[in-house]
Amino acid sequence: MSENNSSVATILAVDDSIVMQDLVKRALAQDYRVLVADNAVDALSMIYHEQVSILLLDVSMPGIDGLELCRTVRNIPQFQELPIVMLTARDGLFDKVQGRLAGATEYLTKPFDAAQLRQVVGNFINSNQPSEVAD
């Protein structure tokens, strides 16, 4: 990409699996700044302290799961428009409906295709270009 570092979008991937964190980083790090968290508490802290453009959430995590984290983020006024992509192994229709009801913008299943993940993230980044550059 021809953008400088201050204008590169930041993606936060929340997954308790180090392997999945690494796969997401490998899929997206060439074009985006990728942050990872392995739990909901750390993820909430990060979205408050970083200019996160997209949140990628696993559903199955110990403690607060991805669905509850998604609902929590949606209830915080400044994050109501933040794109949230559920990235999970749960691929049943009921799971997808639960994800949408929790406030997910998109739902992708694992194992994910890296090109598909890049496309989904790129679509959100391109449709949500900020009018000012964040610090």
TrEMBL record:
The keyword Phosphoprotein applies. The modification 4-aspartylphosphate is found at D58. This is Response regulator. SUPFAM superfamilies: CheY-like (SSF52172). Residues 10-125 form the Response regulatory domain. PROSITE patterns: RESPONSE_REGULATORY. The keyword Cell membrane does not apply. It comes from the Bacteria. Keywords: Phosphoprotein. It comes from Phormidium pseudopriestleyi FRX01. Coiled coil: none annotated. The lineage of its organism: Bacteria, Bacillati, Cyanobacteriota, Cyanophyceae, Oscillatoriophycideae.
